[in-house]
Amino acid sequence: MAATGQGRAHRIAVIGGGPGGLYAAALLKRLDPEREITVWERNAPDDTFGFGVVLSDETLGGIEHADPVVYAALQAEFVRWDDIDIVHRGTRHTSGGHGFAALGRRRLLGILHERCRQLGVDLRFRAEAPPAAELSASYDLVIAADGVHSLTREVQAEAFEPSVQTHRCRYIWLAADFAFDAFRFEIAETEHGVMQLHGYPFSTAGSGESTGESTVIVEMREEVWEAAGFAQLDEQESTERCAKIFADALGGRTLRGNKSAWINFRTVVNKRWSHGNTVLLGDAAHTAHFSIGSGTKLAVEDALALAACLQEQPGIPEALAAYETERRPVVESTQRAARASLEWFERLPDYLDQPPRQFAFNLLTRSRRVTHDNLRLRDARFTESVERDFGCPDGTPPMFTPFRLRDLTLRNRVVVSPMDMYSARNGVPGDFHLVHLGARALGGAGLVMTEMVCVSEHGRITPGCAGLYTDEQADAWRRVTDFAHAQAPGTAIGVQLGHSGRKGSTKLMWEGIDEPLDEGNWPLVAPSPLPYKANSRRPLELDRAGLVEIREQFTDAARRAERSGFDLLELHCAHGYLLSGFLSPLTNHRTDGYGGSLENRLRFPLEVFDAIRALWPAGKPMTVRISATDWADGGTTAEDAVAIARAFAAHGADAIDVSTGQVVSDERPAYGRSYQTPFADRIRNATGVPVLTVGAISSWDDVNSLILAGRTDLCALARPHLYDPHWTLHAAAEQGYAGPGVAWPQQYGAGSRRPQTGRTDAPKPRLTLGS
């Protein structure tokens, strides 16, 4: 009987003989030779799909420490190279210093087969494994490494709760009988649409006339694949067609397949990775797009972690829990990067008109794992050439290049994002606002934005929200702008105007965010009478008279904003507040001319924008903040967001401030580093409209990367400026920059160099004694 939860795993069943399953078996047997380990693989030993696999130095380091025998065998086979070639419209750009290692998948499996046999693992080829539920009754541990189409996962779906998303590109794995001299990306613009080639070597020249081998993956959008007629072609015909399309990259050579088929990539996510004594590993547990070369890498790393946890923990339940705790954050981070890369290639046509070197830089940094600073370390010459093309003066990081909006020139690309402070009295900003915004103006950002400033007393979110609906409020704001202009010359200050809509009359954030007030409530209005949360107050649906009144409140506030001395005005059409409520189909259920189609839902926000633009000085810019997705089914789509941005731009918006969510309370955001940037990127490159991006941008390296790649024009940072009001000044100091893109206040000049830290010159040990 199984010994689950009692001691270490002795009898282990492995379902699937791919690299992850084989390596897990070898490691576990090596750690305890008394273990009985059986691997079931439905295919023959030499059957394999795909051609070459890529492993990182980090993964190889783990293999070296865990099993030097396997590491030595891999070392003898690896092809290594440093360069990436990007060929676009007949021009090749090369970036070096990347460091890849690859070998043939068949050879990798052969090495692992041999190691398993040496250690005494029972390998059963051409054998279907018994069901995991059956194995779990007679084995201590069942490792389901049965791939992306895992039967174990599907049969026990209620336990693992898998989610599988199929993506919009088709791709095919092929091989060429020569070795590329770099990792190669090539773009083909055909009559049917854009196609791309991903190629890399996995074996070098051998004896005789062999010139090595390369993996070649051809990928394109589903509609391009259909239009090109690939759906009607067999494997050989597809292979020959791909060779003709990419004849230049292949030097006129042929391609070959290996039971190759056109498939759509599927992203696999599981809510749980183990059930009882059965655990998922590799593609059965998670997948990440091939464009970041992660599948085999993740499976091997899973095997390393699982073996270590089984060695370290007192029992199998503890080991499986520790394994998932250790691996899940790493896998989720990789999946976020892989998704960014996958979506970049899905949207490849949007980038084709970028300047050639910027296009190459954009491709290299698409996953956000390679950054501007990282690429500079790898290949300074290439990075500097991209900067020159972008217009960076020598020694100037991209973030410190100026940006013009109408008559306003921002000296750098950093924006202090609007942040509600809930600290006004009767809508009047006080000393807190002066110090808060004044400190950030002194901190070096090109543009400092106020919090959402409400256009009426009933348009406030909370009793502590600031307003611009009285002259007293306007005078108080003038105090803030005068300070910024006098004490931080060169820093622009902008005002964000908004109305809370159905999200008003709530407590201060630290007393209960989005919770209705216990007393002192005011009436709420919205496009439709839908409460924000189950316990929220129900708003009244705005009639025509109400719409006119609110439009006038916005224009009155805009006139006061001009009197207050603001340099830029932003209209808040995001986060579920009043104007945002008109845009989203989840919050706008109207049946009149302001509801239904997107054109109708845009009608009132555009009326408000037009009314403000008509009176706002012609030389001063206006921006619009939107929620580019509601993070909820049936809400605003990416295509909607592009249309919304295009509509505001057509009415005179100078830039779109692209945020997401907070429209409905049951949203499910996909949080992660710079997680909102893809929405800004899509809008910018689909429409040509300048954008601000916001959301988990925390480093100056991120800012430089996003701007230089052409994914955004400005970066708005919120929490980093709460942590450090002088974030921009410190970013300049850390990059050794002292040009016109940033200015230290004279009073702070002595602090413009990073303070010395503790002593770091202690003698280093020269000898390490073994135990």
From TrEMBL:
Residues 134-335 form the FAD-binding domain. This is Bifunctional salicylyl-CoA 5-hydroxylase/oxidoreductase. Transmembrane segments: none annotated. PANTHER family: BLR3436 PROTEIN, NADPH DEHYDROGENASE C23G7.10C-RELATED. Residues 744-771 are annotated as: Disordered. Gene3D superfamilies: 3.30.9.20, Aldolase class I, FAD/NAD(P)-binding domain. Residues 399-732 form the NADH:flavin oxidoreductase/NADH oxidase N-terminal domain.
